[in-house]
Amino acid sequence: MDIIPQILVSGIAAGGVYGLIALGFVLIYKATSVLNLATGEFMTLGAFVCLTVLIELSAPFGIALLVTIVFAACLGALTEKIILRPLIGEPIISVIMVTIGLASVLKGLTHMFWTSQFKSFPPVFPPQPLDLGFAIVPSGLLWGFIFAVICTVIFTIIFRYTRIGLAMRATASHQQAALSMGISVKRIFAISWSFAAITAALGGIIIGNISGVSIHLGGIGLKVLSVIILGGLDSIIGAIIGGFIIGILENFAGVYLDSFFGGGVKEVAPFVILVLILMIRPYGIFGKPLIERV
User: What residues make up the domain containing 100?
Assistant: First the structure.
């Protein structure tokens, strides 16, 4: 079996998950112009909540998933109302620094409740891999990709074809104009943070099912920064395509460059790509360049 199709398929599967997590970044940025650097910790909390409901309560996966979604929605809304709303009007860098502090607090709370011990999900999906003939997709990546695609389609439909989505797009375009049309910007901010927390929690469940859960799971959130900057901070389609590109390039780097450099290239590759993107096209493939008159 040729290794290149296998790399491509595995990269696309991983990229779908990255795209789902990146969607949370984009939803918040489009509505509030804030880059949430606590997304990784939202992922970790979502994965641990789902795992706890599955193991401690012996609940079926559907119930655990529903509980996690409700928990994430409440966490996102409370975060916006208690922590971010008082910072309206403050410099963006101040708000971003607050999200970094929030990430540290959430990581500490996660350590207090679940310790630093590595945990594994019980079998949730069928273990059989998918044989495409030219490549094999492991069960974890296969179901993770399917799960990510379904969730991304649902959120895209909500954003483009519902009243809430229309209000979110109006708020993202011009907050003052949205207010004049009777849209509650504060409510839209809270909904945006809830949706973003849900996408992060779902991404945490997918990653946790593939590779297990620990308090360090949130490190993937920083990796996804390269995805949204590649695709464009304000572009949903850019988040999805950026996820595929980073997933594929990451896998190629792991196969062809790890042995040459002695390992570790796969983990570093997304951040190298991030630096190159910022140098060449800082607003991303589908992002809109900011033009100011002076």
Answer: 3-115+138-215
